[in-house]
């Protein structure tokens, strides 16, 4: 029996391996969609995907994790099957944090864990700092929880983001998105994201395409490609980090996000990573690329499973409502 909470809607589909529910949470501009794995009263775990991905990013990993958890993976706003932001609105990290707060309010969770990949890890890190009493464990998959920016670069970043938005609105007004065959859509996604295997690309496209006359179109909001104007410095990142009460597991891929940084950003990230090195947190490195959790989930799953079972306290008794 699935009980709807505060407008939350579910549609359950059962496969040979595992029952998965489709999730829909109303928001003022539309809906936030997602998928749910695990028992009704399991320990709640929120899963946040990376930039330009969708909740299918966790399709291969979650079946390998502890079965006593209730995993809710959402399509971030503007991604997958979730609604786009209203016209004229930029995509920025604080807005994503607000989106997650809406999701948690709808689910009526009082305490939960977060698994976040890449941008989803940064959103999870900021949420854990702003609402430290709500998060008991934070798993960062090829993410540092925050992405500090050199303060000298911030004025130019802000200007570029604002100008990009103006140009986007002028260029895209009345313009139709490109139509692809499914095969060409796979090729397009792989060309733009070298860390995906063909199988992983196919998984992500299950929630990334909409059927139209003559083929398919990408469903994501192209505004997510514009410069993120809401940046924080290393000092702000370290302050945020100090406010996180949750145990933190950072899993870094050898061929992952760390290799993308220019020298300046690499120094900032190294200082942030050093701040995680205490007895309550773990930093591990695994072979693979930025999407290793999706391409080769068996590499990542043992670390995540052990962490959830040993570092995250069982909190099901504290829940005010766990997607019952």
Number of helices: 9
- The portion of residues assigned to helices is 25-40%
Number of strands: 11
Strand order of the largest sheet: 1-2-3-5-4-6-7-10-11
Largest sheet: 9 strands, mixed
- Rg on CA atoms, Å: 19 Å
Descriptive notes:
By secondary structure, the protein is of the alpha/beta class. Helix content is 32%, strand content 23%. The chain has helices spanning 93-107, 119-130, 154-172, 182-192, 198-205, 234-242, 263-275, 292-295, 297-310; strands at residues 9-14, 19-27, 30-37, 43-48, 69-74, 112-117, 135-141, 209-212, 215-218, 247-255, 281-289. Strands 1-2-3-5-4-6-7-10-11 form a 9-stranded mixed sheet, with helices on both faces. Strands 8-9 form a two-stranded antiparallel ribbon. Strand 10, helix 7 (263-275) and strand 11 form a beta-alpha-beta unit. Helix 1 (93-107) crosses helix 2, helix 4 (182-192) crosses helix 5 and helix 6 packs parallel to helix 7 (263-275). The longest helix has 19 residues, at 154-172. It is globular, with a radius of gyration of 19 Å.
Short description:
The protein is α/β, with parallel strands linked by helices and 324 residues long.
Helix/strand layout:
Layout: E1 9-14, E2 19-27, E3 30-37, E4 43-48, E5 69-74, H1 93-107, E6 112-117, H2 119-130, E7 135-141, H3 154-172, H4 182-192, H5 198-205, E8 209-212, E9 215-218, H6 234-242, E10 247-255, H7 263-275, E11 281-289, H8 292-295, H9 297-310
Parallel strand pairs: 4-5, 4-6, 6-7, 7-10, 10-11
Antiparallel strand pairs: 1-2, 2-3, 3-5, 8-9
Helix pairs in contact: 1-2, 4-5, 6-7
